[in-house]
Amino acid sequence: MATQHSILLIGESNVGKTHYGAQLLKRLMVQAGALRMSGAATNLEAFSTALSCLTEGMATDHTPATSYVESIWPIADGEGRTAELVWPDYGGEQVRNLVTQRRIPAAWRDRVVGATDWVVLIRLHSMRAEDDLFSRPLTSFTGTALAEDSKSHEPSDQARTIELLQMLLYLAQFHLESPLAKPRLTILLSCWDELGTKELPGDLIASRLPLLWSFVRSNWAAPVVMGLSALERSLSTTEPDQEYAIQGPEGFGFVVLPDGTQTKDITLPIQQLLANGM
């Protein structure tokens, strides 16, 4: 019987969740990577629509804010390991609202509790890096300035991401007396092509998001960080990229492995979950 690998895919708006899902689906269908589809998938409408856009050389529109659909893909790798991959598609605004509203909808609650693996997509290019209430020294707040700054400042993006992970850990009732082996955590630094760097993914997150990385290292036994460029270049939603359309979307996209190796096989972040077992 196939192992049920249920992935909690975490990512705010504009980090490339749907594009990665569509590109991954294409690789599975044409067996252009370490994974292949081993049966009939369900609920493919959102990803099929995105894939149709990519085939024409255009980016797809963002997933509606209220949408939440789970697509189930039976997959296998070259060693015969199989799994049922549960891949959600949802509006990224839902992730921000989990923290700001401090309410977790039923669909999210069920997915968090049942997840075997957490994959967090972070787009460094759009992460705010300014100081916030968590990173500025308390000595910078005095008297009236404290009252004014407390109104004008909100937690930074990395502080909000930490709070989100804390909420999900609490909901799933994971205890943090020792670093977690389950659920396994993979961080994908998405849209890697726009960063223009040769740094290792782990070094980059440590330097750009030290608060978040310190939290992750303290609470997970073996977190994995990779770079991801699902599309390899920016695409317009209205003007087709002719080269993209001619070569096909499966000819684009790459992953940067933890050791800095760049590969066209964007299925590897998922294949490693099968290879490592449970």
How do the helices and strands line up, and which of them pair or pack?
Elements: E1 3-10, H1 17-30, E2 35-37, H2 45-55, E3 68-77, E4 82-90, H3 93-101, H4 106-114, E5 117-122, H5 143-152, H6 157-171, E6 184-189, H7 201-208, H8 210-219, E7 224-229, H9 242-247, E8 254-256, E9 262-263, H10 268-276
Parallel strand pairs: 1-4, 1-5, 5-6, 6-7
Antiparallel strand pairs: 2-3, 3-4, 7-8, 8-9
Helix pairs in contact: 1-2, 3-6, 6-8, 7-8
Helix share bin: 25-40%
Number of domains: 1
- What's the name of the CATH homologous superfamily? P-loop containing nucleotide triphosphate hydrolases
**Count of alpha and pi helical runs:** 10
* Major sheet summary line: 9 strands, mixed
Instruction: Examine the secondary-structure arrangement and name the CATH architecture.
Output: 3-Layer(aba) Sandwich
- Might you state the CATH topology name? Rossmann fold
Rg, rounded, reads 19 Å
Residue-averaged pLDDT, rounded? Answer: 86
Number of strands: 9
Q: For the record, what CATH class applies?
A: Alpha Beta
Low-confidence stretches: none
- β-strand amount: 15-25%
Structure description:
The structure is a single chain. By secondary structure, the protein is of the alpha/beta class. The chain is 36% helix and 19% strand. It starts with a strand and ends with a helix. The chain has one domain: Rossmann fold (3-Layer(aba) Sandwich). Helix 3 packs across helix 6 (157-171). A hairpin with a 5-residue loop joins strand 8 (254-256) and strand 9 (262-263). The protein has helices at 17-30, 45-55, 93-101, 106-114, 143-152, 157-171, 201-208, 210-219, 242-247, 268-276; strands at 3-10, 35-37, 68-77, 82-90, 117-122, 184-189, 224-229, 254-256, 262-263. The protein has a nine-stranded mixed beta sheet, sandwiched between helices. The chain is globular, with a radius of gyration of 19 Å.
